[in-house]
Amino acid sequence: MKFDLEKLNKVFDNRIRVGIMSGLMVNDTLSFKDLKEYLDLTDGNLASHLKNLEESNYITVNKGFVGRKTNTTYTATEEGKLAFKKHLAYLENLINKLK
Known about the structure:
By secondary structure, this protein is an alpha+beta fold. 54% of the residues lie in helices and 18% in strands. The protein is elongated.
């Protein structure tokens, strides 16, 4: 089997974006704070990867308040879920064919 790199989604080349999408695939929404703790990242590092996913239309951003504190949450879009599933399915198929 020839490995076709074009079938892998470049957005998911980064382990942090894979971590973000993995979390959002099993949770309806996650807050910035939750993602930061879950992935053990700095604010700036997490923010840059969230921006990349948002610009790809793979996540939506919801800004609000809890009391007087800002609360930003993220949700995977249907497009994002489909793209991530396709990416994982290709990897799984590749692994199974190499067994």
